Amino acid sequence: MIPLVKLLEAALFASPRPIPVEELKALAPEASPAEIASALDTLREHYDVDGHGVELAEIGGGWQILTRAEYTEAIERAQLAARPQRLSAAALETLAIIAYRQPIGRTEVEEIRGVAVGSILKSLQERALIDVVGRAEGLGRPLLYGTTPLFLEQFALRHLEELPRADELAIALRPSPQPL
pTM higher than 0.70 for the full model? Predict the structure, then answer.
């Protein structure tokens, strides 16, 4: 591997979060954006072609070295990796509403869910999965919520356009046929 590829690999290995290209560029200021992109492609091919247990993935606007999905269960079973805390069904439902409808206010989320969501919004904010992204026009200028880069990282998404479409969700949620 060329030195730039090795430098990027070392930085990505050391980081617990995805690193945006702009931050990777700070490692080698003399490198052009095209050289950084080429080095990332070389590193990704290295992991893919040689069959490594890790892969280079673009997540939430940055790059990160991740364990391949097929090894995740074994690593979790051996308790070698920190397990993310699970979200309740109510928190997941609220998070999905925010992800698909952002920016969205608390009142709109409550209208969709049919229950108060104040404590759930606070919990999602404490977990840094959502944040206040602005204020709505109108009486009281209510807060508007949106997802954060950590949301993309936790759900292994490069950007929000990778969320399943509504028609894909209908197929995934359809009950499976019962055996005769």
Answer: no
